[in-house]
Amino acid sequence: MANFGAKHLNNVILSADVYAVCLQHALTTEKEEIMGLLIGEVDDMNVSHITACVILHRSDKQPDRVEISPEQLCTASTAAEQLTHKLKRPMRVLGWYHSHPHITVWPSHVDVRTQSMYQTMDPLFVGLIFSVFQSDKGSVGNQFQLTCFQANSSSERRDVQVIIKNSPLEQYNLQEIAKLPRILAQEEVEKHDEENNECEDLLAELHNEAYKTLNLVHLISKVSRPLYEDLEARLNATNIRIRELEKVKKKLIEALIV
Fold this sequence. Notes:
258 residues, alpha/beta, Cytidine Deaminase, domain 2, 8-stranded mixed sheet, two-stranded antiparallel ribbon, 6 helices
C-alpha cells in the first residue's frame, strides 16, 4: 500500500490548452465515458503543473466506465519522455482524466478505488473528472463541471484545488487534439468489426456495415468538422492579433526614431 501520509498534492495548475483539449474530448460523446492521461511536472511545494495530455484509445466503452490497455500507459510514458527531451524539463505522467456524461461531477466509489490504485505507484497522482451534457429545468443549454481529487488513507475522496492557467495552444497539444477524430474512428471500426466477426447472418452483417458507415459519417459532421472550424477560428484570431502587434511595434519604432 502507498504511504498516503508521506506526502500529498497541495493543488493543481492546469494549463488552459490542456483544459480545452480534455473538455473537447469529453464533449465528443454523451453515451460513453472517455479517458486520457495528464503530463507535466511537480514542484518542490507539491504543486502539480499539468501542461500536456494524451488522448487514449478505449478498449471498452460503457456509459458508466471506461477501460484502457496497459500498452496505453506505456504510450503516455513515452510521450512524457519525448516532452522531457523537447522541453528540457523532467516531464512525467501526473494523473488521469475521464468524463461523466449526464451524471454529477463527483467521483464514484469505482473512481476513488481506481485513483487509490494509481496512488500506490505515485502518491502525487491526481484525477480530473469532466461532467458534461447536464442540464437543469430552467436552463436553455447543457452545463459542464470539473473536479480534481485524490484518495486519502481511508480510500475516500480528497478534493484538490485546481487552477486553470492562461496559456497559448502548444504544438504538442494541438497535435493531440488533431488525433482525436482518428482515434474515435478506430474505436468505431474495431467495435463493429468485432460484432461482425460474431455474426453469421448476411443481412445482419450488411446492417452492421451500414450502421458503422452511419456512425463514421456522424463523427465527421459532429466532431471533425466543428474541430476544424474551431482551429481555423483560432488561427484567424491569432493572425489578427499578430497584425495588431505588428502595428504597435511599428508605432513604437517610429516614436523611438523621432
